[in-house]
Amino acid sequence: MLTRASSPSMPQHWRGPLAAFVLVVGLLLVLYRDTVVGMVSIWERSDTYAHGFLVVPIVLWLVWRQRHRVADLVPRPSLVAVLLMLGAVALWLAGDLVAVNAATQLAFTMLLVLAVPAVLGWQVAWALLFPLSFMFFAVPIGDFMMPMLMEWTADFTVVALRLSGIPVYREGQQFVIPSGHWSVVEACSGIRYLIASVTVGSLFAYLNYQSPRRRALFVLVSILVPLVANWLRAYIIVMLGHYSGNTLATGVDHLVYGWLFFGIVILIMFAIGAKWSEPSPDLEARPSLAPPGTAWRARPAVLAALCAVLVLPHGVIWALERAQNHAAPQLALQGLQDGWQSGAVPSPDWKPAFHNPSAELVQGAAKDGRQVGVYIGYYRGQGNDRKLVSSINQLVPTTNKDWSEVSAAGGTAPWAGTPVPVRTAELRASLVGDVKAARLLAWQVYWVNDRLIASDAMAKIHGAVSRLSGRGDDSAVVVIYTPTDGTGSARQTLESFVQANGALIQASLQQTRQR
Question: Using alpha carbons only, how large is the chain's radius of gyration in Å?
């Protein structure tokens, strides 16, 4: 006699709903294939998100563990879930309009998860709450935390070195100790450790604890431990380099020591956590909650609405693409005002690192012995390979060995008489501590939808509004910079230039948009 656990047959009331769910997932994969391919390509090229390849198999295994509990539940399509999918579709559309991969990939995952209650019902979704939630670890999001994590790592390392009796001189993410020069770069941020720890820690907590309080506590520990471990790792590596005369922890072994230390810490964390594990619950099926015959009466209307929701954003994209200007833009900045004349660019070996603009302009200006540089990166026809706001677009990338960003802050500039929010940054050439190194004061602002904007988020929002209003996606970054000696005269130079020529820059951008 076959027991329930060994029976291979599928309950009759699950055959239709499961077939419909497979078709919906297939439709999702076809309609949003570019988003899926983008996610997979990030998993493939980035070690930080390589765990994404494991997420889907783990989710399928977690669902399989729950199969007996789910089998006797009655699928009930939910129109409410379909309405919630409208929100995910709106997020995907907004992200696609302004080429924000994180938004489109998050929205796709939301659609995939919401397809469960939409087709199978909320009871099924609740029974699979953790597997569905775990799907979000497949979304490669986290790079936005990198600057903050780098700052924390640098802060801790410098404080720890000083407490150890080692003098430290710091500028930005670089610091000098008597034995040498160190930099906190992306690899030192600990983002890989953090994401790996939280992903595995969440799964460990779900499988080993039944109490929500214990699960939440262990997840919190899996967040805090990699942060502190990364700080200690950075400090230990600097100390190894310092006391070994920079023969240890300065090359490939730098990474080896880091991962070895992290692995030991995480193993200890899991070993301690296992001591408080709780028995697994009985995963056998529970009684049916409703007669199978009444389960799927509403399916045609719900499925039709679901398909319409999934197709909707693609129709909008198609219509907007037809209105997009695809001509190559031509930039020019002529007729400088108030005595400013075209001149040499200050520090010609530096240029903002904005990736793949449709057009670029680098121009110098001079007046009464003062120098100003103007950089404009113009973007049209934006997509994944060309976009104004991106984590790789920076004044100075950390891979630049000739220049570094010493400080950054927000501020305002008297742009043609009107206060405009700008990003301010001080840049330095050569190594930290070199008093003779060239320095620049730079102001950065985005031009989007005929507005001057400093915020990345607001630039994205106005970019989406511009496209939805049929104005295309033309936008630009404007960086104005001048040599600085720290006396305040550099700010006065920039104020004088934008007061006189800010309107000219905007007019030039508007003319470029119309061509």
Answer: 28
249 and 176 inside one domain = yes
Lowest mean pLDDT among 9-18, 336-345, 462-471: 9-18
Q: How far apart are CA 115 and CA 113, in angstroms?
A: 5
Question: b/e per residue, 220-251, with b = 16+ CB within 10 A?
Answer: ebbeebbbebbbbbbbbbbbbbbeeeeebbbe
Task: Return the SS3 of 253.
Answer: helix
Query: Is 201:222 a contact under the CB 8 Å cutoff?
Result: yes
Residues 112, 193, single domain; the answer is: no
Structural domain includes residue 345: yes
User: DSSP assignment, residue 289?
Assistant: S
Answer yes or no: are the C-beta atoms of 442 and 479 closer than 8 Å.
yes
The answer to whether the Cα torsion of 71, 77, 80, 82 is positive or negative is: positive
Tracing tokens 């390392």 back to the chain, one arrives at: 157
CB atoms within 10 A of CB 155: 13
Identify whether the C-beta of residue 388 lies closer than 8 Å to the C-beta of residue 459.
Answer: yes
Domain containing 317: what range? 12-140+296-322
Q: CB-hemisphere CA count at 13 Å for 168?
A: 25
Distance (Å) of CA 390 to CA 145, 323, 355, 453: 14, 24, 9, 15
> What dihedral angle (degrees, nearest 10) is formed by the CA atoms of 403, 347, 374, 369?
140
Predicted confidence band of residue 450 (pLDDT cuts 50, 70, 90): confident
Which helix (H) or strand (E) element contains residue 171? Answer: strand 169-171
Could you give the percent of the chain with pLDDT greater than 70?
90
| 154 found inside a domain | yes
Same domain assignment for residues 181 and 301: no
In a shared domain, residues 158 and 43:
no
How many Cβ atoms are within 10 Å of 115's Cβ, its own excluded? Answer: 24
Say yes or no to pLDDT of 1 above 50: no
Please check whether residue 336 lies inside any domain of the structure: no
Q: What are phi and psi of 342, to 5 degrees?
A: -60, 140
What pLDDT, on the 0 to 100 scale, is given for residue 251?
A: 56
Beta-carbon contacts of 197 under 8 Å, excluding residues fewer than 6 positions away, are: 222, 223, 225, 226, 266, 269
- Same structural domain for residues 188 and 267? yes
Residue 37 within any structural domain of the chain: yes
